Amino acid sequence: MEEKFNEATTQRPQGDRTIDAPLVAINLLYFIEQIRNEQAWKDSDRNAITVFKTNGMRIVLIALHKGAEMIKHTADGLISVQVLEGQMLFNTNEQSVNLGKGQMLALHKGIAHSVVAKEETIFLLTLTTSLQEK
Q1: Residue 104: CATH number of its domain
Q2: CA separation (Å) from 84 to 68, 103, 131?
């Protein structure tokens, strides 16, 4: 298996973070601190970093300021949402769930949903993706 690294961006110019390998150790505390120190966190109501990406799965660490909303959308695969800090309201057309630190949910593909941060919230989003997606 070929190791893959993130590409350099204006926000993250290093471009050397491993995002796919036979084993990827992920230091969430480091990435949470990084997200909070980036200009995007200061200028926007959110920030995120992809911590793992391979054929079939992606893991994204997302931080939302209090009141930030991810408007209704759908995912092209199964997702799980695990709250690491804070509290959010996760809504589908059928129900709403309050999620706090240490809680998580799973949602099937194609179900419309939205998220509202009730306080500053950090969560892990795991998304299954098409095997053709890189």
Answers
A1: 2.60.120.10
A2: 16, 8, 28
